Amino acid sequence: MEIGISTFVETTPDPKTGEVISQAQRLREVVEEIVLADQVGLDVFGVGEHHREDFAASSPAVLLAAAASQTKNIRLTSAVTVLSSDDPVRVFQDFATVDGISNGRAEIMAGRGSFIESFPLFGYDLQDYDELFEEKLDLLLQLTKTEKITWKGKHRPSIHDRGIYPRPVQDPLPVWIGSGGNPESVVRAGYLGLPLVLAIIGGSPLQFAPLVDLYKRAAAEAGHDVSKLPVASHSHGFIAETTETAADKFFPSTQQVMNVIGRERGWGHYDRSSFDNARSYEGALYVGDPDYVAEKIIHLRKNVGITRFMLHLPLGTMPHDEVMNAIELLGKEVAPRVKAEIAEWEKGR
Length: 349
Description:
two-stranded antiparallel sheet, globular, alpha/beta, 8-stranded parallel β-barrel
């Protein structure tokens, strides 16, 4: 069982003061958060790619590289790389560079992206949304298998017997598939034998158990060893010394973000009752004291089959010291308990 953090490096207005942190400052803060996550023993840190004013990380690999030389053990991944609007060659080269700097700790989490700003920015047609991802994933996977590549596709110029450098320390460089719960993407990941990351950010996490089963069936039918395929979740949450404190600190920024994005996507108004329901034991928010958050992660592992849990924090803009405290609690108190209990549970199965 692996425990880690994911972030979108948000620069939304402070819900209390209305002030907006500079993107440069938030980028520097995230490097500090990655370094702390490594120091407290967390397994992985992920940075999501976005191309809009309220998210500062348009280039996760650059940010991860800044942290790579300051960390020793933590794995460094995108969360996600919007592969459909990117060039797989550059993605591979960027993360191979991070892999070299970190001495073999880089990963790529490839996804189609739930935000679409990158498509017009880089000149892609949203009508090609699925086709772009399938074609570019094919190229990226070929790049992980061979130094010299010959490839031809529809949406990117052909490559004829060209070497791609630098080569990563890991062989192959790990590629995960990020999914919001689309059955087709889950089956694709299983068929390809790639690790799966599910964005479990609403409803009941237990509703994702059939998708994990579908993924494993697809992998088994394709001849892959299912026991070697990890399944991760990316879930919003926050940790403080008491559950009440955690809820009160996390709600304002969560409400602000959910209502901004909700207006863009036609969701209903997000209020405190919505928040409190989501942080219940069967809900998708992992908000509380260390014991409560640990219990919910263990519940997720036992009932859904998640083998890597990534707590997404902060959601919106929160004080840096509060985020750092939550990371410390996750590494020092939550993760050891989760790993110990899951290890005992595995022995008895």
